[in-house]
Fold these 4 entries.
Entry 1:
Amino acid sequence: MACASLVIHNGTILTMDSSASVIERGYVLIRDGAIAAVASGDPPPLKDGAAIDAERGVIMPGLVNGHTHAAMTLFRGLADDLPLMQWLERYIFPVERRMDAAFVRAGAMLACAEMIRSGTTTFCDMYLFEQEVAAAARQAGMRCLVGEVLYDFPSPNYGPLERGFAYTEALIDRWAGDDLVSVAVEAHAPYTCSPELLQRASRLAQQRGVPLILHLAETESETLQIQQRYGLRPVEHLERLGVLGPHLIADHCVHLNAAEMDLLAARGVRCIHCPESNMKLASGIAPVPALISRGVAVGLGTDGCASNNDLDLFGEMDTAAKLHKLQQRDPTAMDAVTVLALATREGARALGIGALAGSLEAGKRADLIVLDTRQPHLVPLYHPISHVVYAARGGDVRHVVIDGQVVLRDRRFTTLDLHAVLSAAEEMAGRVRRWVAEG
Ligand SMILES: [Zn+2]
């Protein structure tokens, strides 16, 4: 339960409000899970609450992971440096064919532990058995947007597609009105989903007032496949199907031309950038600066652990900033404030929760983290936002508050038993080894 009042004080506050204002020595006052005040100096005395001394560290919004497959933590390091089809057929498919709810629950709990410990307070998930992911997030106290993946082939969870739509609707009903868990309709990608599936998923999302999420324009081969099948590029294909709109969150968005970017902006589509996954799978570099300049809401995601191999958004920010500078041969491209915004305010906007989270402003829910900056790699501290993007790591996160609840205090979890989470994941890894050997 959240304390009636909680104050985090004696820290440098990165508000990440629209002007990214920084408060040198201030406090954040929380009442009933919401931010009541963000101010400089000492907090007012509290009669009924708790206090956390940030010890002159950084107080900032919790990070928003815009795209992941949480349970794929159980695939971390299983098989790297392989061509995509070999990786899928030899390692991923044999496991996914046999996995069950308990497997996904164990992987999702591991992911929640990793994300909280590295400062992520909200994540957006796409996978199988998503009821388990929602339940894991609820248990860990994390904010999330989840959805069951739909595609043209039978699923190890729900079987035929028809039951996938029923599962999605049941998920939407089950979590309606929840403080932390929201549900989306999630179609895998234009190359794995028929036009009928995409249109039906889009209609369902609009009817239920929830986002539609899909992977879009991730690889060159996707573009070629869609062109061969439909005579159009992936974004044009979705436009013709009437699927592009402000309800759509598109993951990756690597292979876009200028006209497609204009179209995404005109339709109000939101995008999630996953630079480390795109690098590891050699997919390409998403044109993020060009999307931002068109006003598109862009968030940052790690993608699953099979293609990253961690869920640390601090590393992801560092990579994003440097990747675009290198690509543009311009050290001023994707500056630290822009990149931190992708992982906070803009990431929340991209997920449709910009009014709730993503910055430290009175009235928003209290999702925040405290970094310990008294460490050799963070001293001296001239520009805290630069430090957060270029020098800090997930391991520097000391306290985490989500919806007013302290879920990590002095790097110790208050909502989950880390030993049990790690043991369950190791047990599942034994199954993964067996299933891969059996083929
Ligand atoms: Zn993905």
Entry 2:
Amino acid sequence: MERARRRWWAELAWLGGAREVVDERVLISTERDRVVAVEPGSDPPPDARRLRGLLLPGLANTHSHAFHRALRSRTQAGAGDFWSWRERMYALAGRIDPDAYLALARATYAEMALAGVAAVGEFHYLHHPPGGGRYADPNAMGSALLQAAAEAGVRITLLDTCYLQADADGTPLEGVQRRFGDGDAAAWAERVERLAPAAATADGALLGAAVHSVRAVPPGAMAAVAAWAARRGAPLHLHLSEQRRENQACLAATGRTPARLAADCGVLGERTTVVHATHPGGGDVELLGASGTTACLCPTTERDLADGIGPARRLAEAGCPLALGSDSHAVVDLFEEARAVELDERLASGRRGHHRSVDLLRAATGGGMRSLGWDAGAIEPGRLADLVSLRLDSPRLAGAPREDLLAAVVFAATAADVADLVVGGRQVVADGQHLLVEDVSAALAQAISPLSDPG
Ligand SMILES: [Zn+2]
């Protein structure tokens, strides 16, 4: 990869991290994949690449299931709830092999790059052939995801997911769910260990762990996955309290809320991210906050699936860093996720102003990067050189007030406003064009069409 010393210049930049304001005329020097200097108030030197509009740290899409991209526009209309949607998702899951997965994930990650995403957290549980058994390479599906991200120019944290049972009462996996299961936590760890060398040598890849949910992993196995992640210092994610039914099933099976059970199994902590946290039970918000666990909200998916509105403000106040994910990819737009966190809480509470714009952008950048184990999310010397620029002359942002550009970005920008993306010092998107995947729309259409639901 071409990663020499480079200089980049932007008229306006929010540098992320602790910065509260937009800096002007910012010169950024990078060497290989890192930022080495940041100099606001600089004239653009002739050798610097100009990035148009407003520069931000590259975005983190903290929660993704790449294969769900093939459900877009097929499951949004009509009636039902999360559980009826899941049946459609399972039907798709039964049709994907490693080659189809590579094509679909590569196109999906390329769509993310066009939306300004520098790193994705892929919550990966589609491990084995339909009906069970093993591929010749038992990590054929995970390897396809690593390759897809590399080809799309996006960094990936592959959150290899343990998924062992159909419900908290120990109901065995059946039907397409058998693709997800390794049998037990030891077999899960053995398979993941075989993936570790490939992930370690891949450029821009990191291996993490996930517990699918308290429904899908019994307490002893949750503790084993948590211990594996702790030994490796790896990120650990789990779906938590997305549905009230999960809380009820967990209480019935264990006498504890999902968060309490996760805490007792050693799952919570500063390396851990809970996804959704839409329906935390009594005391759960305080438990999550005190442990420093990140809460990853996925509001465009949560609203699509009629999940509910999570208590983002209370979670943040309790001490949970926030992160954002497009999850089912009903849309891939981190600006939409960011504003939905605030706007959904307005609808639920009848009050405005739960989150500051700068904090929502932190969730989309530094909060997510930290959750995924990357030293990124702020444009600072020493950190990974991830830069995204937004056109300020788009119809959405034209006329935005200079003194409150961050609010304009949160409340009006869309993924379509992304002009340039630099990931680890390498330009991946220039002027709205992906430089590695020639025609992202065609790649998506070609990958999705053979997977379409025949019924
Ligand atoms: Zn998910």
Entry 3:
Amino acid sequence: MPDTVRVPLGDRSYDVVVGSSLLGNCAESIGEVLGKPRLFVLFDEAVALPWAQQVMDSLSTAGFAFDHVSVPSGEKSKSVAEISRLWEMMAQRAFTRDTTLVAVGGGVIGDLGGFLAGSYLRGIPFVQIPTTLLAMVDSSVGGKTGINLQAGKNLVGAFWQPALVLADIDTLSTLPIEEFRSGMAEVIKYGVIRDPDLFSWLEQLGPNPAAADLTRIVHRSVQIKAEVVSGDERETTGLRAILNFGHTLGHAIEAEGAYSAFRHGEAIAIGMVAASLLALKRETGWSSDDHSRLEKLLKQSELPTSLPKGYSARRLIDRTRVDKKAVSGQVRYILPTSLGSVKFVKGVDENAVLSVLHEIGAAPE
Ligand SMILES: NC(=O)c1ccc[n+]([C@@H]2O[C@H](COP(=O)([O-])OP(=O)(O)OC[C@H]3O[C@@H](n4cnc5c(N)ncnc54)[C@H](O)[C@@H]3O)[C@@H](O)[C@H]2O)c1
Ligand SMILES: [Zn+2]
């Protein structure tokens, strides 16, 4: 039986269904929520077979009218050029407001497809069918959509909630192991910010969870993300910022590695270790035992916990100042206070950050 998490957002509320064999029955699930609209199915070229095919077979059998288009894999598809190609294609094919867009793929397709749906004819409904662990536990829930500019990642976009999310665990069977691990970093993050039981359970599970455990992992992560975003849909009250634990320095590390040295989750793993060390220095209540457990769990999940040679502490700090989540030039850190809770800290002493970065392997200058 699939598990469903309701994301309560008033008239924008929706269900995230987590389970196995969901793709083969997706027409039924879509039909229950949206009736029988014309569909535009967007899929990552890497998931054409068997996943996108299963979606299309289910839609054909149920008699849905749909067009489909394959999008090249990778971050470069979150671009003005790609969305422009898709806008034009939708207009040429005379898609009207009663169309629903279906995005099948990882966070790239979800973010691009979500923004396409949010902007075409000022907004049409969309369905997310995430096929990476990261997309299941993070990007498909919460309504942030967008594309990148030359000047930086995710600089153009909109909040546009999906009408339904179908997270089919089976799709993870073809996901490259590095991508899986990268998604696990976000799961571990949820344990630290919100759920000590999830954290302890991950410690016991080991690096290769079985399908039933994966369903539980995704389900619990989605519940946490849903709780947080429903309390702060548009990042105005501050609650949503707790999702940024490990991300202030993580984003700097990703950017400093030109987005090719590390996957997102790998950079976040190192960022979480750095934030954990900062919490020890600031005496937030976080203990050295908590720190060791976090480091051990990341290692057990085969994620990096320190920087390779060649990263300058100074340059990383400079990068945190231009992070788009810095407010009025103030860098904000989310620091753990105990397993399952974090606090928001502004004005962290730069020397403390420098010293932590040295501890995790950054060069002095
Ligand atoms: N909207 C949000 O709230 C939010 C949150 C976090 C991240 N993001 C965005 O998500 C993106 C990263 O998402 P991602 O990690 O899913 O990356 P991705 O979409 O690039 O997918 C990773 C790789 O896995 C491949 N792939 C996807 N599913 C597969 C499957 N089932 N089998 C085999 N290969 C598969 C893809 O082709 C790609 O090469 C970034 O652009 C990031 O900005 C958005
Ligand atoms: Zn993240």
Entry 4:
Amino acid sequence: VETIDILTGSKQYPIYIGKGASAYLPDVLRTEVKNHSAIFIISDSNVAPLYLDTIKEMLPEERVHQWVVPAGEPSKSIREYEKILSFALSKKLDRKTVIIALGGGVVGDLAGFAAATLLRGVRFIQMPTTLLAHDSSVGGKVGINHPIGKNLIGAFYQPEAVLYDLDFLESMSVKEWRSGFAEIIKGALIRDDELFRFLTDRVQQLPIENEGTLLHAIFNAINIKAGIVQEDEHESGVRAHLNFGHTLGHAIEAESRFQNISHGEAVLIGMLFAFRLSEQLYQKRLMPENLIPWIKRLGYSISHPSLAKPELLLERMKQDKKNENKQIRMVVLKSIAKVETRTVTDERLLKELKDFHSWTKQCESS
Ligand SMILES: NC(=O)c1ccc[n+]([C@@H]2O[C@H](COP(=O)([O-])OP(=O)(O)OC[C@H]3O[C@@H](n4cnc5c(N)ncnc54)[C@H](O)[C@@H]3O)[C@@H](O)[C@H]2O)c1
Ligand SMILES: [Zn+2]
């Protein structure tokens, strides 16, 4: 098991990563969450039947409560949030309660927001169970969705510790592997060309079966994210780089009504667009020769039906909350592992989106 210490302006906490890392829970509770009065585990309907009992068996001496939300993004809602708080308050949980978020990014964001706001804040521990949750477990962003948009209600709130047990990933679907792995590729592309080479060399199929390869990929991806958020805890500057591939990715997700395509799969297409746009802006070749065949081998789609409607995508991209003065800000590549943000005009983007659409069709058929 590897450890990464995360330093933020407000606190320091450890992330334990590896097969069997969840076995550290009793120790972590004793050392990182001293004097807690009760434990409140929040999980979802897919994860709870698989892992909740094992976790509870590790805590025989403790006062343990649990709440299970339906699996899926719709649970990041005001309604589910209210139910959690009502349950906690009816059980008279006090300020010394520790919340454990056992699940993917949905549970992490929701349980983290409950922890941030219950009685003005109780301590919490993250136990991520998806590959994508390597991303959501670092950076302290917690929150829920509003019918008007995703993640519009939330806080910056750091956990006491993160226990990332890689054994959990074994039950994940291939689609979820692709979703999480896209964010690892993203981390490599914005900050770490060595990791990018490592991934293209070593990962030839998903799921990743080699334990060493998986640990190396996740460890480095977490370090990249940690480095960026430590530099920029409240998202003013370089943290925007994490948005690489996301401007178009979010638009594709929204156009598909969050069905059929996962977050990471959409971001992957967004990254390819960012590559193509960067090549036009800097007038040089940036995409490695082997990238497209590799992406395909891993089972990703290069194209998406929504690309046939560039005007609609552009409208969606303009709604991105990271824009300034209505101009779309894109994270672009100067070279692999070197990115910057640029505002790009609507006309330009529309033209590039059209070109991109025909390029993706070509790639898919070749
Ligand atoms: N806070 C942040 O910084 C941050 C960063 C990235 C993403 N997010 C959020 O994370 C969410 C997406 O996270 P996600 O992809 O983990 O989604 P998720 O939590 O919905 O998990 C995906 C699916 O896999 C299931 N699952 C989870 N773990 C499993 C396991 N071990 N075995 C079998 N099935 C399992 C879940 O029940 C769900 O159906 C989004 O809401 C996104 O906004 C937050
Ligand atoms: Zn993302």
